[in-house]
Design brief:
The protein is an alpha/beta fold and 297 residues long. It has one domain: 3-Layer(aba) Sandwich (Aminopeptidase). It is 37% helix and 16% strand. The protein has an eight-stranded mixed beta sheet with strand order 1-2-4-3-5-8-6-7, with helices on both faces. A hairpin with a 2-residue loop joins strand 1 and strand 2. The N and C termini lie far apart (48 Å). Bound molecules: zinc ion. Zinc ion binds next to helix 4.
């Protein structure tokens, strides 16, 4: 009884001390940093368009497999249109037997190194690839959309949709050759982020550098999701790591075993991930928190 009374008194005192003063002291943000310059607002992670963007793009992409040249071409056309609608210009990066699609979002201030965020858009033959990997593509589209609402960006961001990951990282290997590690701050790739049957909201961070691991853990704390680090290779981030880039991957619990049983089958459909849209939304918020933190002044 007495203890709780002391706590009430203490809490009251703390609240009183926390009242804003009307002095002209520096206005610090909630995390203790000095606020960004005027006009440098950051978009809310809880964006009103987020869920619709994710479900629409997964639904559109997963109407067919994206294996044949015509199917992959149709996917590129769709993604190009989505980027154009956000005000970004997509470019096709053609290599031997395929083509990646990228968009360069310039910095508006400062001269930070380039941040790369990508996901593969191809599938194996016969699979509509809703989880693998329309889900990752949708998250990357969401980042492009958040950046449209981020007026102050200290680093350029390159959005990339990789071709032919399923055949052996062909697209990401070709794209990595167009960049120089010393000009790139980080490479983040997203692959399979729409399965959470056990409902624990956990994501796996694949082979992050210590600095990237710290960034993602901080973002996970903001978004309120658990993350665990694994040593999974075999997807696009490996193509960049092999060439000396600071790279990492985000995925569902692939090592943990809570991963889609429909991978690489005709059953990897939009309907099969219907129950996990909340998880896909969290993947988008988590990734966006990392990228917005990296670009913000
Ligand atoms: Zn994949």
């Amino acid at each position: 009884m007495q203890t709780s009374l002391i706590w009430i008194v203490l809490a009251t005192l703390l609240l009183a001390c926390g009242e804003p003063s009307d002095g002209d002291d520096i206005d610090a943000g909630v995390d203790g940093r000095v606020d960004a310059p005027p006009g440098c607002t950051r978009p809310e992670l809880d964006a009103p368009w987020l869920r619709t963007l994710l479900t629409d793009s997964v639904g559109q992409l997963a109407t067919t497999p994206r294996y044949l040249p015509t199917e992959r071409n149709a996917a590129r056309t769709y993604l190009s249109g989505q980027l154009a609608a956000m005000g970004w210009t997509a470019q096709t990066h053609t290599y031997a037997n395929g083509a990646n699609l990228s968009a360069s979002i310039p910095a508006t201030m400062g001269s930070g190194k380039t941040i790369v965020v990508g996901a593969h858009f191809d599938t194996v033959s016969g699979s509509p690839g809703a989880n693998d990997n329309a889900s990752g593509v949708a998250v990357v589209l969401a980042i492009a959309r958040y950046l449209k609402d981020t007026p102050c960006r200290t680093s350029p961001v390159t959005i990339v949709f990789f071709d032919q990951e399923e055949l052996g990282l062909f697209g990401s290997r070709a794209y990595a050759q167009t960049l120089t590690p010393s000009n790139v701050l980080a490479v983040h790739t997203i692959d399979q982020v729409a399965w959470d049957a056990d409902g624990d909201r956990r994501f796996e961070l694949e082979l992050p550098t210590p600095a990237l691991e710290a960034e993602w853990q901080a973002a996970a704390a903001v978004v309120g999701v658990p993350v665990i680090t694994t040593t999974t290779t075999g997807t696009d981030h490996q193509a960049f790591r092999d060439r000396g880039f600071a790279a990492m991957g985000l995925t569902e619990e692939y090592v943990g075993g809570d991963t889609s049983p429909f991978r690489h089958t005709p059953n990897d459909t939009r309907a099969s991930i219907d129950s996990y849209v909340d998880y896909l939304v969290l993947a988008a918020k988590l990734t966006s928190q990392v990228i917005l933190e990296e670009v913000s002044p």
